[in-house]
Amino acid sequence: MNHSQSAADRQLTRTRDASFKTFIPARMDRLPWSRFHWLVIVSLGITWVLDGLEVTIKGAISGVLQEPGTLHFTSAEIGMIASFYLTGAVLGSLFFGRLTDSYGRKKLFFVTLTVYLAGALLTAFSWNLWSFICFRFITGSGIGGEYSAINSAIDELIPARVRGWTDLVINGSYWIGAAIGSGATVILLDPNILPVDLGWRCGFGIGALLGSFILLLRKHVPESPRWLITHGYLEEGEAIVQQIEAWVQRETGEKLATPECGLTIHPRRNFSFRTVARTVFRSYPTRSILGLSLMISQACDRALLLPFAVGNFTGPLILGRFFDTVGRRQMIAGTYSASALLLLGTGWLFVHGMLTAYWQTALWTIIFFFASAAASSAYLTVSEIFPLETRALAIALFYSVGTAAGGIAAPWLFGVLIGSGSRLNVFYGYLVGSVLMLTAAGVEVWLGVKAERTSLEAIAAPLSVETEKD
């Protein structure tokens, strides 16, 4: 199935009708699992692997970059670099998120990956502080934009019955990238293998090289048919769905069920920022509270748990299916609560000197088994509870808040507590993390949305469909 030659890549033509009825969302949701869905996962889900790789490599080389044989940065300059990367991620998510809703998922997931690759490759050739800062800002912008474009596309291309598991596994793959980065730096930063000023450069260059292969895979991922129809491109949406159905039928040999639920679409060409903001915060105020609560909590928890959780991918992988069967509210509240109580208990044992290094590591592994699934569920929630026309920008808004909290407040707080050398102060850090997670669990119980095995259009009707909102 070569989408590079499909209708999606030709000049798009809007339907002449003022409105039309379509079964495209139902047709996409009733598809059996196939290689097409694996293509979506691999080619789009690489974003989180790249992010984990980026964060780990940058953390590992911070010390090397302060050595006289390299760029010889100071500790303050290393902190400034991190701030600019964070700023790039926040601004990139907002900027590209807006474009993703306006111009389509496919165009932007090519653009954002290209921006990331350019930033990563240029970083490898940095010659001083400001060149390094500039290139890291570009890299962060690409990563931030990827979160908006990719989460939107994945949700709209994956069947509703497995959307929860798929989202959790993809978001959890961040730790695969972290593990790869951790293993790679052992070799790249060994002066007996590579010169001290070459190894760190190779780390960024290899990341860019690996990411470039994903551009080739993404050529075969189509534009979201859901996005096309809500913007009036009925003919192109129909053509893409027919191609996907033909591919799936040839592979699986299954006869596709007749879709039952149709939508009447009233295409709207433009959605202003005011319209998007009003929809997210005024039409869905409780969902906005829910999204902010989960995203801030997961960002702070990730900052706390990162040193102990590199490579921990088992939580989302094993628990993810229960988010589609047991339910979103039960599993999100349960994983946040379990990780919070385990964290609090571990902190209490630590402050009383009752943990050996072995048991400390074992308990953190168990904590993150639940916490990594909980953190991934924050992205799942934000990506599915708002209308299609606002999805990418909504993801960007909540991602920005969470990233700012996790990148600024949490590292600073935990750094101060750990630097104090007091076990009691470290326990206070555990306590803060526990309270955040328990709060998020409570908000989920109170405001959680029943989204498991449910069409995106039933969770939040597109703005192009005139239906009552919650």
Short key terms for the protein model shown above:
single chain, 470 residues, mainly alpha, two-stranded antiparallel ribbon, 19 helices, 2 strands, 72% helix, globular, disordered N terminus
Structure, explained:
With 470 residues, the chain is an all-alpha fold. Helix content is 72%, strand content 1%. The protein contains 19 helices and 2 strands. It has helices spanning 24-29, 35-61, 75-103, 105-123, 129-157, 163-172, 174-188, 196-218, 225-230, 234-252, 273-283, 285-309, 314-319, 322-325, 328-351, 357-384, 391-419, 423-447, 456-459; strands spanning 20-22, 263-265. The protein has a two-stranded antiparallel sheet. Helix 5 (129-157) packs across helix 17 (391-419) and helix 6 crosses helix 16 (357-384). It is globular.
